[in-house]
Amino acid sequence: MTTITRILIFILIGVVSSVNAQDFQGVATYKTQRKIDIKMDSTKMNDAMQKQMMEMMKKQFQKTYTLTFDKSSSLYQQETELDKPQVGGGFQMSFGSSGSDVFYKNVKNKTYVDQKETMGKNFLIKDSISPIEWQLESDTKHIGEYMCFKATFTKQVPKINLNFNSNSKIDNEDDEEKKPEMEDRTITAWYTPQIPVSNGPAKYQGLPGLILEVHDGKLTIICSQIVINPKEKVEIEEPTKGKEVNQKEYNDIMEKKTKEMMERYAPSRGSKDGAIHISIGG
């Protein structure tokens, strides 16, 4: 039996099941982690301090999210966690989303609303879902009790490499208009047609089944639990709090704020401090 035939059978079974269950709903739990690479060329940063900072940053990217979904929409939100770890001196390390962020998708209307709290301000990002040109692969594996199929797509992404050094405030500060260096990245997803929704965590969607696992550069997202038709129905409502912007407007705001932050915290010219190179990746 070919892979495509198996997929079609699973889809048919799922469609029949969904028709019989008009209130079809599910809650999936995802664990995320992101690899990081830190190089600190500083006489003030010994091996023990570097190791401590590395562990703290790793914990920042180990998060748990829940995806509440039905046949056409979903809410993706980080679970509440303890205060973020701090580096010596009380400097708080904060990367990524806060616990109050909510990502709403309507795969039927192909729209999303991303409610974010960033740098003390609330934003409501409204835009259209970009189609993903998935390539369906023949590989299969089980994730828990679900048979999953592999899908991939390749996109171009900017290389992320934040460099603070003793010779300049910000690398390439004399060439602010220079376009970032780009690279190809292949994203791999594993989805199950046994759960017939074209959805998944964050912005990943568009496959003939719920996405249970994603490998996107240094980011890994893995589903750890699924509850179909929970006893207590959860309402899936579009978030409404924050300054309304589209994705491009939000990206422009964040780019401006990031440059301001880098200029503020980067060592001044002639400083005897060493360099700190942080590579987080996509």
CA gyration radius, whole angstroms:
21 Å
Query: Which structural class fits the helix and strand makeup?
Result: alpha+beta
Strand-residue proportion: 35-45%
Mean pLDDT: 79
Q: Percentage of helical residues?
A: 10-25%
Largest sheet: 12 strands, mixed
Distance between the termini: 37 Å
Overall morphology: globular
Strand order in the sheet with the most strands:
10-11-13-14-15-1-3-4-7-8-9-16
Order of helices and strands: HEEHEEEEEEEEEEEEEEHE
How many strand elements?
17
The helix tally amounts to 3
Low-pLDDT residue spans: 15-21, 85-96, 162-175
Explain the layout of strands and helices:
Blueprint: H1 3-20, E1 25-34, E2 37-41, H2 47-60, E3 63-70, E4 73-78, E5 86-87, E6 91-92, E7 102-106, E8 111-118, E9 121-128, E10 135-143, E11 146-158, E12 162-164, E13 182-192, E14 210-216, E15 219-228, E16 243-245, H3 247-265, E17 275-279
